[in-house]
Amino acid sequence: MEFRIVTKALKYIVIGVFALWTLIPLAWIVSLAFKSYAEWRVSYFVPKNPTTDNFVLLFKPEELLGRYGVMGATAIIEPATKPLINSLIVTAATTFLAVFIGFFTAYGASRYRAPGPFTLFFTLLTRMLPPAIFITPIMVYYSNLGLLDTYFGLVFLYSAVTVTYAIWILKGFIDAVPVEWEEAAMLEGATPIKVVFKVVLPLVRPGLVVAGLFIFLLTWSELLFALVLTNISAVTLPVHISKYVGAVGQLFGPQAALALIGSIIPVAIGYAIQKHLVTGFTFGMVRG
Amino acid sequence: MNADVVVESVSKRFGDVVAVDGVSFDVYRGEIFTLLGPSGCGKTTTLRIIAGLERPDRGRVYIGGKDVTDLPPQKRDVCLVFQEYAVFPHMSVYENIAFGLKIRRISPSDVGKRVSEVAEVLELTEHLEKRAGRVGLSEQQKIALARCMVVEPRVLLLDEPLTLVDARTREKMRRELREIQRKIGITMLYVTHDQLEALMLSDRIAVMSKGKLVQVGTPIEIYDNPQSLFVAQFIGSPTMNFIEGVLRKYGGSFILESGNFRIPLDDVAKLYNLENLMDREVVIGFRPEDGSIDAKGAVEGSVEVIEVVGDRLALHVRVFRDVVLKVYTTIYDDVVIGSKVRLSVNPNKVHVFDKISGRKPLPTGVGHGIP
Ligand SMILES: Nc1ncnc2c1ncn2[C@@H]1O[C@H](COP(=O)(O)OP(=O)(O)O)[C@@H](O)[C@H]1O
Ligand SMILES: [Mg+2]
Question: Looking at chain A from residue 154 to 213, which residues have their Cβ under 8 Å from any Cβ of chain B?
Fold first, then answer.
């Protein structure tokens, strides 16, 4: 009995520490986003004069100089609207493409031995290299191909990188679908493509959601590739955040404000698909 | 007769395992044809080759007179009822049965009509709205059957469809299966390892062993005239009595000799050409119902076990060191454990096999009814 209480207390302590560890930076961002210029560098948490200036300035960059004097002299000329839309387009396209291609690759890997186990492992191996290693050659290629600063260039690279995760997540789900179900459907008149769409796809929908969300989050927050490969027209949110640098230092307020906006979107999506997520993570156990 | 399925010298190996080895047979229109054999003898593989789920290494498959060897499953006009995993547990029973029709883009009203017709025949109507994973195992098997029946294939393939249901339901479903088949007149190719099921259900049976077909015939032919030791051992419950020994001929009389235990085989020698088996190891076999207690019988033994089977007694009689024979007698016979009895056997029902090859000698063509 006492042992039970101790383990329970321990559990809560571990969860509590972990929650603090992840939530404090987030709380700090919230705090910063509503602090005025004078309070950015002070250590108290609750702003004395809460303001929405930081948010307003995101969309009116021309006022930065007037508001912060020389501190506000930045390279920012664009409002944050374009990067927000860019990020949404690039992330959505990447997620769709990676999950789509990943699904069919995983299906092939699960049902046919053709690619061999190494090919599949190799896709994972490429993820183990630091991205910084291949960003320079990619930039050179992209420059020659005219893909720098384009949606296509970003989506192409992002989906190539993230498709690995889609393959590995979805293969587990597809492996759990008995091949007899597909065979039965075939004998009842379904062509192989219909079998995939009518039998397999509906069954692995939770897997698609899990893989999709995972890839969405990765792509949404990706900085390095976007920083190197974009300049003006395809700038993404993380890149845009990094541009709020004044003549003598970081503009913490607008950065925090944009980061807050940038985190609300994935949280909202996660909340909306919550139900699928739960079944997604327990799919293997539910089947039986 | 019209052959709906023709299997022609089909072979299939998986690595070093020869799963199917030169199998040929015809299934006629409207019959129930059963592949019978112990587990691992290649029945499922044969069925999957016919269904198009497995490619044969050699041989051809014809369905409805058409060579389908190179066609995919959905173009073969057959449907397979699997041993397990037969239903989609996440769909309703209705959706399960309707699946094949929806795939074919049949109009919703026709789908509804067909599904309720088939559900009626299989007594599934009350379950239509339930989730398929939630109904009992025998209902699930019926759903699997219904899914195939709605698409009206030329040939219905069934792979041990009754192994998962309990014994009582199994018996009931066997009878129902038979009735349904009669009613809709469909050609059925049935696979089972259960010889009683095969004998009850089939118009014809093909017995398989180690990837080969060893005998094809009606249930009566298979039961009454096994062509090999394997079939003799496999068919029948209780199994046949077997006596091993060496075939000898002393002064024109045929004798089965095992140590100093001897059985005269002159009556049997009239039916089979035994000359080729002379001085070889043979096995003779007869079914318990073909032996009887007879004061003039050729062998003597003592009763060891007595079982009451309905209005009969099954006697286990030890006639030699390790030879115990089972015969039936009436409950009015005066036997107790330890009684000395003499046994005789209907010579027309004695089977002789070469022990090594398992083969039966050729009949002399007299009185045994073998063509
Ligand atoms: N996909 C497969 N891969 C390897 N061996 C197989 C495969 N399918 C069947 N076999 C082997 O082939 C033989 C026949 O199997 P099967 O046709 O399933 O027999 P049955 O249905 O009569 O029990 C067995 O030895 C089995 O292990
Ligand atoms: Mg089998």
Answer: 178, 180-181, 183-192, 194, 198-199, 203
DSSP secondary-structure letter at B235?
Answer: S
- Residues of chain B in contact with residue A181, where contact means CB-CB under 8 angstroms, are 85, 88
- Which positions ≥6 away from A235 have C-beta within 8 Å? A78, A82, A83, A86, A226, A243
Structure tokens at A8: 């329970």
Q: Which long-range contacts (CB under 8 A, 24 or more apart) does A1-7 make?
A: none
Whether this model's ipTM surpasses 0.85 comes out as no
Co-location of A94 and A216 in the same domain: yes
State how far the Cα of B358 lies from the Cα of B38, in Å rounded to an integer. Answer: 17
Q: What is the pTM of this model?
A: 0.82
Q: Which residues pair with B340 in a beta bridge?
A: B302
Instruction: Give the tokens for residue A61.
Output: 């960059």
What CATH number matches the domain at B239-354, 2.40.50.140, 2.130.10.10, 2.60.40.10, 2.30.30.240?
A: 2.40.50.140
Residues 6+ apart with CB under 8 A from B240: B232, B233, B285, B286, B287, B288, B351
Instruction: Name beta bridge partners: B126.
Output: none
Distance CA B265, CA B255 (A): 5
Write out pLDDT tens, residues B289-332. 999 988 888 888 999 999 988 888 899 999 988 889 999 988 77
Mutation target for A interface from B82, B92, B141, B157: give the one with most A CBs within 10 A: B82
Best probe of the A interface among B53, B118, B160, by most A CBs < 10 A, is B53
Distance in angstroms (rounded) separating the CA atoms of residues A172 and A166 = 10
Element (H, E) at A143: helix A131-145
Per-residue pLDDT of chain A (288 residues; tens, 9 = 90+): 678 889 999 999 999 999 999 999 889 999 999 998 888 888 888 888 888 888 988 888 777 777 777 666 666 668 899 999 999 999 999 999 999 999 999 999 998 876 677 778 888 888 888 888 889 999 999 999 999 999 999 999 999 999 999 999 999 999 999 898 999 999 999 999 999 999 999 889 889 999 999 999 999 999 999 999 998 899 999 999 988 887 777 888 889 999 999 999 999 998 888 877 766 554 443 343
**Which residue from B287, B299, B270 is spatially nearest to B350, judged by alpha carbons?**
B287
The residue extents of the domains of chain B are 3-233, 239-354
Burial group, residue B118, by CB count within 10 angstroms (0-12, 13-18, 19+): buried
Domain that holds residue A8: 2-73
Question: In the prediction, which pLDDT does A285 show?
Answer: 38
d(CA B104, CA B88): 18
